[in-house]
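Thread: "does anyone have the structure for this chain?"

Original post by V.I.:
We have the sequence but no experimental structure in hand. Need at least a predicted one for the grant figures.
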Amino acid sequence: MSAPPRIESRKGDLAGLTADIGIVYKFKGDAVLPGPVDRSLAQRLLEVAKEDHFEGAAGRHLLWHAPPGDGLRCRRYLLLGLGAKDDLTLLRYRRYLGDALLECDRLGAASVALPLLQAGASPFPAREAAVALCEGILLGTYRFDRYRSEARTGHKYLREVQVAAGDGPLRDVSDGISFGETTSSATNFARDLVNEPAGELFPEKMAEIARQVADESKIGIKVFEPEEMRRLGMGGILGVGQGSKRAPRLIQLEYKPEERAVRKIALIGKGLTFDSGGLSLKTSEGMETMKCDMAGSATVLATLKILPELAPRTEVIGLMGMAENMPGGGALRPGDILKIMNGKTVEVRNTDAEGRLVLADALSYASTLPDLEEAIDLATLTGACVVALGPMAAGVLGNDRGMVDDILAAASRAGEPMWPLPLYEEYLEHIKSDIADIKNTGIRWGGAITAGLFLSQFVRRGLRWAHLDIAGPAFGDKEYSYMKKGGSGVGVRTLTRYLLDLAG
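Reply from O.Q.:
Generated one for you, tokens below.
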């Protein structure tokens, strides 16, 4: 896979930077160009925009080739429309910039120069503008090309981006770029994991990768093999994995801050390396993207990977419930009863509602950890959540409204759309079983809520808990700005912000 471009910040304005393409922003209706751009260069580009009737509509581009005798240090300039100034947000800035960098790469640019943008209805702080800029670039230029026999032809991969910081605080800009590089690297690592074919990435392989990450990042790790899971009574994970020749695993990671921790939290990821539906078999079309059913665990591993570098004052336990749901001769059957680690029994009505069975054991185990105050699970859990919120947004449910609100606030700053959903206790009636404590499916309506209520039965009383249903945004079927086809790495940037916020 190609190396990510190097991003550096410089004092001064855009006119002092040399690159294959210089990017300049244009707000719709504004007679000036924002950011540190030399007046004579800005005036020339405004004339070009006027001649070509380029008004600065959001996300639109205009490429101008600088005449050889003009003495300009960039051979080409790309005017990037940002729409109305008061409508610009950091999320939109990431998207527009991601698109612009893809265009520069398509045009064969090896180097790009652009100004730092502090704009919007309330001007962005320099550090946050730099974070958004960096994430837009590095997430937008991501490629998963490990299995291509030949590199793409006709393209130079973008290698360098220079940021003109003007007279702004260079330390804040550099810090923002550094943070953006860290979060983008982790997000792209999660993307790589999700994009791996299921034949290459199975529970045991994921444990090997986790061990390597733990060794490199200097975090603790313990891998629970099937025999130990049996001793602990983890009937959910074992039941889901019993139809596959690839045995399940529960992976535990641990980050401890050097200073005294102000909080202890568990991050829990669903890790179905492939979901055929089991005996409740999916359609062939429904299986096409089911290598992505381990996206929650990829996010957990990627987040733990960067915590030593970011050093939040929060102790974090990462739990990854890894299994493969296959219709083998020993597969789980509709009507079977499973006993979860916390002692509750589950009637399996549909073997394709398996993620909640894996998470039931993981949440039960987390509930036994001493001094644990919070738990957040992430899962590609229900199509119902995608019906409710579409493919862009994750649903957030939990037993503590303050915690849910804090996660939503972190998601907003991270640029990852999320939306709260309720946990109506009255709906518990729909997942009561006639022959066990609970069943793994409810009525057709409110499926994301009944799935959340199912999980709540395995969270100990007093433990603050939130569930992120990432079924929509975890895997894309088309290019959307800086979010590519395939795995998105959703949740890494939100969890990172949330953990840093916990320490105040």
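V.I.: this helps a lot. The chain has 14 helices and 19 strands.
O.Q.: and The two ends are 37 Å apart (CA to CA).
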